[in-house]
Amino acid sequence: MQKVLVLLFLAWVCFLYYIGIVLFTSGFLLTRLELTNQSSCQEPPGPGSLPWGSQGKPGACWMASRFSRVVWLLIDALRFDFAQPQHSHVPGKPSAASLPFLGKLNSLQRILEMQPHHARLYRSQVDPPTTTMQRLKALTTGSLPTFIDAGSNFASHAIVEDNLIQQLASAGKRVVFMGDDTWKDLFPGAFSQAFFFSSFNVRDLHTVDNGILEHLYPTMDSGEWDVLIAHFLGVDHCGHKHGPSHPEMAKKLSQMDQVIQGVVEHLTNDTLLVVAGDHGMTINGDHGGDSELEVSAALFLYSPTAIFSSVPPEEPEVIPQVSLVPTLALLLGLPIPFGNIGEVIAELFSGGTDAHPHSSALAQASALHINAQQVSRFLHTYSAATQDLQVSELHRLQNLFAKASADYQQLLQSAQGAEVPLQTVIAELQQFLRGARALCLESWARFSLVRMAGGAVLLAAACFLCLLASQWTTRPGFPFSPLLLTSVACGLAGAILYAGLLAATGLKLDSVILGTAAAGGSLLPFLWKAWAGCGSKRSLATQLPIPGPVLLVLFLRLAAFFSDSFVVAEARATPFLLGSLILFLVAQLHWEGQLLPSKLLTTSRLSFSAPTGPPRHGGTYALRLGVGLLLCTRLAGLFHRCPEETPACHSSPWLSPLASMVGGRAKNLWYGVCVGALVALLIVVRLWLRRYGNLKSPEPPVLFVRWGLPLMALGTSAYWALASGAEEAPPHLQALVAGASVLLPRAVMGLAASGLLLLLWRPVTVLVKAGPGASRTRTILTPFSGPPTSQADLDYVVPQIYRHMQEEFRGRLERTQSQGPLTVAAYQLGSVYSAALVTALVLLAFPLLLLHVERISLVFLLLFLQSFLLLHLLAAGIPISTTGPFTVPWQAVSAWALLATQTFYSTGHQPVFPAIHWHAAFVGFPEGHGSSTWLPALLVGANTFASHLLFAVGCPLLLLWPFLCESQGPRKRRKPLAMEAETRGRFEEEEEEPLMEMRLRDAPHHFNAALLQLGLKYLFVLGVQILACALAASILRRHLMVWKVFAPKFIFEAIGFAVSSVGLLLGIALVMRVDGAVSSWFRKLVLAQQT
Amino acid sequence: MKDTDIKRLLYTHLLCIFSIFLSTFIPSFFLDNFSILETHLTWLGICSVFVTAVNLMLYLVVKPNVSSKRSSLSHKVTRVLKCCIYFLMSCFLLHVVFVLYGAPLTELVLETFLFAVILSTYTTVPCLCLLGPNLRAWLRVFSRNGVTSIWENSLQITTISSFVGAWLGAFPIPLDWERPWQVWPISCTLGATFGYVAGLVISPLWIYRNRKQLTYKNN
Ligand SMILES: [Zn+2]
Ligand SMILES: [Zn+2]
């Protein structure tokens, strides 16, 4: 198999995954751009005069205020039917007795019957996602918040858009808040007085409500407020705990009824009472999705003075929830928030019972007109900033607004207009407002179940492909290139078909759908192939041979994605699973009898049927490795950052930068430890390289390893010293310190980059010895008279040269009396691939380390130790097949992926946005980046996904390591031999030499197939993770924690997958580059020896 | 191997299960407020003592292993001492393993240690009774084709199922159900107990079902 083919095949699989992820994301995570523009009193939303009397009055803005004070009782999850008046005579409806939540809010019903011109009940139509935070944003900004509001600050939840609370504050109103502490995050410092209660424990029905009740009436009576907001959580928590059809719900609603009753009694005449639910709940008491029960909430308005000109209709009117925002703003004499797309409730502007019908209608029209002007201004600004909205529809709306506006102006000019055209203008304005809302809704607030399902199916198909194809690689002569070719052709055909279809129908091109068409098309040949294979002699079950216990670990890990508790606890669950897998591997090695010499076992183990050979290592070798791994894992777990969901947990203090430490001695000590870790890492790597003879040659990459790496370590520690003690520097050195803290990180990164380039340029650093041995080489090569003409010649010649070189080298070693029988290793050929990879990993690790806080260097040291131990442990269980096919077992790949996840957590990360290390963006750029966004994004991304990248690049080590360990086995076995016989040199030459990684080189076809298989297996393990995340997010989209836990987890997994897949391709490409360089090196050698 | 052997095995196992039952009921006659969950540590100690006692009794009565040709008193004493040391060592070793697996290092030390004790009771004590303080024999029993009798076979099964039970017991800990048995290490000890009982039940049945295939080299 060709090398290019392997890379192309993997790239194709990655492409399938990417399209699946993007398709799923486009259906699941709706995005919207947050505009930070503010409405202001001085700046009316459009041309034309403001309504009468508004300019003159003090405290009035776009309209004169009608109420000076508002009491807003927000009852979380107050579904519409909870508040619906119960007429006992209506047949066919469930009576209040059967359902405990019906008819409990009697005070609303009484008010509506006794004071019909004072109160209204509405069914408020909520936009999904029906989660409290999103609803609070909607109820204050008047917009349609989505999960990711682009441009929002991920580090905090504070609302950056224009909103009611901010307008109230800037108008000088005193806003008093009591209840759910979500408001504290959303509006930091906006309240004149606030009583926050934790919303964390959903099982606690009473703490928040009782806390509010303690403060509610005293505050109302004190009069120290203009707007009073009370957010009750009991009903919502009761729904989550017991569901709505539980006697507890009846009690809770009765309590709320008493609250409303009490507040009504305390109201003064200039006050408006708003009772609103933020969303509904399903029959199980959950919310978050878009089912009918979740999106219908109650909204009740009451004024002690009459404000409505008509009596309430029999069936309450349905209004969008966001209508409350412009209505409240205008009623309080505030400008409507800039991003509002709600429509004012016109009834409230009618002026009460005694108003003249015409002036009443005119007042409604003017309120609607201001509202329409504001929405039109918003649409204009928004469509200028982004391309989300449909252009044709936008154009239609603009025309509609222009006409309505012109009609309205005309109406104002003609002083005595008839009432009929006035109604037309109102209808036109309402039509425009509803159209605008529908337009925004279309692009912002709909889960697309089709896209989500399509994305999940595509991901599942890609996983299936990885699983099957990784089995196919071991089959000799499997036609991969035709499969790839037909796949690409079919994919292109699918894309062209879709584009043609679009061209025919004249629709807009959607790049996501285009990609889906291509991916779906390219999957067809594979599916056909799988189907054909399924029908033929092999059944599918025999093609999927993941061993049971590994399957169990993998399954447990995937099942954990479906439980919010386990996602939150993943930082602890992953080391547990990893430890289980490690001990299982050790136990398995013991079970297979590879740990003990066979004579210890009484039963005969000499039968040739046993597939495993004699033990290659000492008795406790694997046990020591396993315990060391567990120890490292546990130590790395000390660097633990707590998720915000578990208040009892304490984050490790070691995750804070040294600069935040007080106390000189401790700081200095820690600094020493960090530098020590850095030096230890360097020494470990150099020792490893030296052991395999990779530090001998004068090639540039070797020189770089010898001198460049210490230089990088020096730069890093100098930077740490500056960063941790910058404020302690004397004043005249400040400029120098500032300059150095810019230069040093950049220098280290530049060094790393140049090192990587050097490595790519000259990956083979084999020491070629020109000397007296040359004559003997010629004797071996005599059968070939000419230069090698074909690959077959080369394949034949190369092993001979190689063996000869070993021989020669051994002779030289014996002459110089140097110890150590590692003949091949000394020539570096035996570790040529892994040496390049390890060097690349170290070069990558340094810049990544620089982006973390100082003490994470200990984790990086542990990371290298852990992977080293794990590789040895895995290698102990993998028998070396001498000629191929080479395979990497599933448990190796799973353990590697688990290790990557564990390192993600132990480097102080959590899959939630507030936990991102933003400081990484300022490493080397202390002044910020100006307007550029990709560079800080790259730095923060590199910080967050450092472990994904390192482990993905290092993935080919899983394949190489067993060959590397080959040199240990025979040595151990020989030791007693050496004791017995003095003439060891001559004697052993007859034995087969440890060819180490040259075995791979000798079977290039199997080597490439093994690389492909390794890549596919790793992609499979990562792919099922992202698939599980996607399924969890879509199945649990009504879950309380979907936006807090599952959706962020999906996003982190998706980005992590992208990083890992790119890293994997890079790692495999690096191995192939080395392979190519080795080939050309051999070719050169052959040519040189023949002259 | 005869069916009588299997019968004896079954009866001894039933006795072990019975001892666990007793350990949950008998103390409530003597101790106030005794329950498995609330006075968990007491129960752990009592259960450990009961199971150890039954195992020793069975060892003395049934004598499943036919070794120990030398039977001088000093040899017996050293043997008993060795067994005690082995048991303690296994407790400490398991404690270390639990900590490595994520148990708290400085808090709840007594709880963790008692968990180690109960797990040692389920695993090490039967091993000591059956195989004596002979590490090589232990290693042999727990490797492929290393079993030489149905007693060893059942030992293998009960030990592995105890470990698996304890392992599975760790899974409910992160869940937010807020049940009293989710506290460390209650779910793990309960899991280990259930695993042990399950092993005791399963192993005679499994041996009985596979009695045709089971041939032991040394029998
Ligand atoms: Zn809510
Ligand atoms: Zn809720």
Descriptive overview:
The complex is a heterodimer of chains A (1091) and B (219). Chain A has 1091 residues and is mainly α. Chain A has 38 helices and ten strands. In chain A, strands 6-5-7-2-8-9-3-10 form an eight-stranded mixed beta sheet, with helices on both faces. In chain A, helix 6 links the parallel strand 5 (175-180) and strand 6. Chain A is elongated, with a radius of gyration of 36 Å. In chain A, 48% of the residues are buried. In chain B, 69% of the residues lie in helices and 0% in strands. Classes of the chains: A mainly alpha (1091), B mainly alpha (219). The interface between A and B is medium-sized, with 32 and 23 residues. The structure holds zinc ion (2 copies). Residues 76-77, 132, 135, 236, 278-279 of chain A line the site of one zinc ion. Chain A: Keywords: Endoplasmic reticulum, Glycoprotein, GPI-anchor biosynthesis, Membrane, Transferase, Transmembrane, Transmembrane helix. Chain A: It is found in: Endoplasmic reticulum membrane. Chain A: Its main location: endoplasmic reticulum.
Offer a concise description of the structure.
The complex is a heterodimer of chains A (1091) and B (219). Chain A is mainly α and 1091 residues long. In chain A, 58% of the residues lie in helices and 5% in strands.
Q: What's the helical proportion of residues of chain B?
A: 55-70%
Order of helices and strands of chain B: HHHHHHHH
Beta-strand percentage range of chain B = under 5%
Q: What about the largest sheet of chain A?
A: 8 strands, mixed
Sequence stretches where pLDDT stays below 50 over 5 or more residues of chain A? 598-615, 770-789, 813-826, 969-992
Total E-strand runs of chain A? 10
Count of individual helical segments of chain A: 38
Rg of chain B from C-alpha positions? 18 Å
Across the major sheet of chain A, the strand order is 6-5-7-2-8-9-3-10
Distance between the terminal alpha carbons of chain B, to the nearest Å?
8 Å
Shape of chain A: elongated
Report the helical percentage of chain A.
Answer: 55-70%
What portion of the residues of chain A fall into strands of 2 or more residues? under 5%
Mean model confidence by pLDDT of chain A = 81
What ligands can be seen in this structure? zinc ion
Instruction: Write down the overall geometry of chain B.
Output: globular
Main structural class of chain A: mainly alpha
Distance between the termini of chain A: 33 Å
Q: What oligomeric arrangement do these chains adopt?
A: heterodimer
- Count the beta strands of chain B: 0
